[in-house]
Amino acid sequence: MYFTNKIRKPIIRWLEDNRGLVVLFFCLPASFIFDLVLRFKVWLQRSLSNVPETHQQRVAEIQKQVAKWNKEDTRQRKLLCTSRPNWLSLSLTFFPKDNCHKVPINLYSILELDEKNLTVKVEPMVTVGEITKYLIPRGYTLAVTLEIADATLGGLAMGVGMTTYSHKVGLYQEAIQSYEVVLGDGSLVTATRNNEYSDLYHALPWSHGSLGFLTALDLQIIPVKPYIHMKYIPVKGQKKYCDTIRELSGANDKDRELDDFVEATIYSKDEAVIMIGNFADLPPITQWGKINNLARWYKPWFYCHVKTFLEKGEREEYIPLRQYLLRHNRSIFWVVEDMIPFGNEPWFRYLFGWLLPPKPAFLKFTTTPGIRAMTFTKQVFQDIVLPINQLEDQINISEKLFDTYPILVYPCRVYDHGDHMGQLRKPRPDQMVPGANYGMFNDLGVYGVPGPVKRKEKYDAVQKMRAMEKFTRDVGGYPFLYADIFMNRKEFEEMFDLTLYEKVRRKYHAEGAFPHLFDKVRPEIDVFEVGKQYIDPL
């Protein structure tokens, strides 16, 4: 064992020190080929099943499989889950699906666009990339559109999502008009805010597939223009940029006229660039020089482009709408920088930028147990919903625990739905926007390698993340559950209100049919034991 560790550590150190070359000459080409194969497989699969007219037939097949499962001996049958491989999801965890009865959910169609009621009906496996390609040429987009093209609309519905439009509409769940779900007894129901299944409707967000099989969604859409007129506002001083974010988000005044998009990228404790965007038509010819096709392979990564305004000062430009919505896709926010430190250099972008981003599915497909352990002990990937009135505290504790920048901030409404909050709790009185029925929160996005890890210092990732989770519980926030959690069951139920969730599990035949939410989202490895092994620098 000693000899093995003596060899292993230098190898891992070399891979860390030369990770950019390893990614460039192996991971990116392999990811590209992997993506081509996967695209062909998905195309073939969708060609066979992507027929809106056969939706009911394909849902009936799912019901048939669940009904067949119900006839099995209850003492021997396994819990239900989808057959979709873990590596195709954007979650960091690897739920042990081999311990479950897997049911194929081959639902990839965009079913109906209702321009009168401003909704689109989709099957759950439709991706963000596909829906933006479909809607934008028709003059629409989703009210809440995630920035990563590979995210599925069903995955977001069963989890959570928010974007830079969320200061106007709230979390992704607020834009869902109805869910079509196959329950644990094989029955098919449609849940809306006001029908007989309204309790199920409110419990499905944040449930991560633990209440039933999602088969269709009705999503709110909004009319759009082809461009976003962006304004970049560099701000120095923590209080000043926090106050400005709160003001622009409408956190202080419910009657404020809001920009369509509001976000901030924080580059240090005292420096940030705040961005406001509004839908716009093609600018006049005299302004064409301000059009930025930022999604082109040779263009600087978006967050690096934004950083230049700390020196340039306030500027404005026009960005094609779809390119704005997927602006972080090439660099996966700023995660790719830790993989390819020279990735934003002009020579790399012009020669190899077309290979980006490395496919999340490929990264997960090639994850070994050792790499999996390092994803949470040597890196941080967290999106956390927190009250915006404590934005300064969020940034300070993030710096103390992780010491990594940039940090992403998206303002977002969290509505007070009274007794219908689902797994969330009502915003506290001091978090409410005066005179409104919602509080103003924000997504705090922390991604990358913590400072102590970069400096080859000891770093107890488990202790740091548990401290962040405690802060989140204390202020009434919630982590996105795609990322690793470090809470025990008791702490989890202190953070999330599972009262309605447990009632719905019993009422709609999920108990004994689907895994519990906590079991679906907790890491598949012993984070405490693995954390101890990786405290020392490699």
UniProtKB/TrEMBL annotation:
Residues 44-224 form the FAD-binding PCMH-type domain. It is a single-pass membrane protein. It is an enzyme of class 1 (oxidoreductase). Its main location: membrane. Its EC number is 1.3.1.72. The chain crosses the membrane at residues 21-40. It catalyses: lanosterol + NADPH + H(+) = 24,25-dihydrolanosterol + NADP(+); 5alpha-cholest-8-en-3beta-ol + NADP(+) = zymosterol + NADPH + H(+). It holds the Pfam family FAD_binding_4. InterPro entries: Diminuto-like, FAD-bd_PCMH, FAD-bd_PCMH-like_sf, FAD-bd_PCMH_sub2, Oxid_FAD_bind_N. It is found in: Membrane; Peroxisome. PROSITE patterns: FAD_PCMH. Keywords: Membrane, Peroxisome, Transmembrane, Transmembrane helix. This is Delta(24)-sterol reductase. It comes from Orchesella dallaii. The lineage of its organism: Eukaryota, Metazoa, Ecdysozoa, Arthropoda, Hexapoda.
